[in-house]
TrEMBL record:
InterPro entries: Methyltransf_25, Methyltransf_Superfamily, SAM-dependent_MTases_sf
Stretches assigned to the Methyltransferase domain: 214-313
Species, as recorded: Stylosanthes scabra
Name under which the protein is recorded: Methyltransferase domain-containing protein
Gene3D superfamilies per UniProt: Vaccinia Virus protein VP39 (3.40.50.150)
SUPFAM superfamilies from the UniProt entry: S-adenosyl-L-methionine-dependent methyltransferases (SSF53335)
Length: 383
């Protein structure tokens, strides 16, 4: 994708970086996840317990489900139609995108996440050199992926989106765990509960099956991929994404991180049709991807995951929970801003993900709230 000016120039000249908030001068570095949740009272309240199989469905750690099947600002409700009408008015939509972006940045920096500093650091680096080695120029992007996402007109196919992905992920963790004292604590809870749910499911339903190969579909800049590699250090881990810009950032950061016995492999491909060999993975993880996909893509990706997993293999999905009390009770301003940056949010909330997994052939399907906003759903390929 040709650029007439440098990504850094575009970033610094954009009026959108005028969001309020004091940026820290030093980027917070995400630490490797600890397997054991710390012993403070608050942390114990949030941690997923090592539950027996029959207790792994539902909410845990005091996370509340709402009284609705899904938020009333999604689907075909009057409120949802009203918000959709607002968003469809282009002048207002432009203002909503601007507002959403300012909220993203200012909220993060108020939580001591140096959003602009981290973004600038990536854009001033030599990350651009990674693109040529990772981009698959023959890849045809699905039509839905060319939509604007997260207030970026070019969606995920831009250096700015890639540079901002890590601070955005850190901000997501702080929103999910609002009582956390730091990003590290929020990640230890949010990511810790997610990774423990995967481990618990695989141990329970895959018998003595070793975890040798892991695929992270929709890996973005590799945050979730890194957690999986840390949890399963003897496994060969692959991160796959549709955005070569995200993958370039992932590869750049991985090369400058702590060396791994098995370096993470990064692949530019479509999660609906990866081109990877059948029955070649023990775990397929899909984190915070489906809310950005139309139903047809969700169905295709789940079917592809089934093809890729070995018998006894585990599929792990984590994303916004339609039953989350926190999400159901979002203020009108916040859910309007959210929907203005997520074109397929309604389709996601109306998709029965568990039933889609069942139709694909998965068994032992379990869902639980692993933090107040997100649900992790795990399932097994029959042996």
């Amino acid at each position: 994708m040709a650029l007439t000016t440098s990504p850094l120039q575009n970033y610094l000249s954009s009026s959108l970086i005028s969001a309020t908030g004091n940026a820290s001068t030093t980027a917070n570095k995400p630490t490797r996840i600890s397997i054991v949740i710390t012993s403070t009272v608050r942390m114990r309240q949030w941690a997923v317990q090592a539950a027996a199989p029959e207790t792994t469905t539902g909410s845990v750690g005091g996370f509340e489900e709402g009284v609705l099947v899904r938020p009333n600002w999604t689907g075909e409700t009057p409120l949802s139609r009203f918000v959709a009408a607002l968003i469809s008015f282009k002048p207002l939509y432009s203002l909503l995108k601007l507002g959403a972006r300012q909220v993203f940045i200012s909220t993060a920096e108020k939580k001591n996440i140096p959003w602009r500093e981290m973004t600038k650091e990536v854009l001033e680096s030599e990350v651009y050199k990674e693109l040529e080695s990772i981009q698959n120029n023959s890849l045809v992007y699905p039509d839905y992926y060319l939509n604007p996402f997260h207030a970026y007109d070019e969606g995920n196919l831009t250096w700015l989106a890639a540079a901002e992905a890590e601070p955005a992920t850190m901000s997501m963790a702080m929103r999910a765990i609002p009582d956390a004292s730091s990003v590290d604590e929020a990640n230890e809870i949010m990511r810790g509960n997610w990774i423990r749910a995967i481990e618990q499911h695989h141990i329970t339903y895959s018998g003595a099956s070793m975890v040798c190969d892991i695929l992270d579909i929709g890996c973005s800049v590799g945050v979730s991929t890194g957690y999986l590699a840390d949890k399963f250090p003897t496994a060969k881990v692959t991160g796959l994404d549709l955005s070569p810009y995200f993958l370039a950032v992932a590869q750049y950061k991985a090369k400058r991180g702590v060396p791994r016995k098995f370096p993470i492999r990064w692949i530019h491909a479509n999660g609906e049709d990866t081109g990877l060999p059948a029955k070649s993975f023990d775990i397929v993880s899909i984190s915070y991807v489906f809310h950005e996909c139309p139903t047809r893509a969700i169905v295709n990706i789940i079917n592809e995951a089934f093809r890729l997993l070995r018998p006894g293999g585990t599929l792990a999905l984590t994303d916004n929970s339609p039953k989350s009390k926190k999400l159901q009770e979002l203020s009108p301003v916040l859910f309007t801003l959210m929907k203005s940056t997520e074109p397929f949010l309604d389709e996601y909330y109306l998709t029965d993900v568990e039933e889609t997994m069942r139709k694909a052939g998965f068994v032992n399907i379990k869902s639980l709230l692993t933090d107040p906003r997100h649900m992790t759903t795990t399932a097994t390929v029959p042996q």
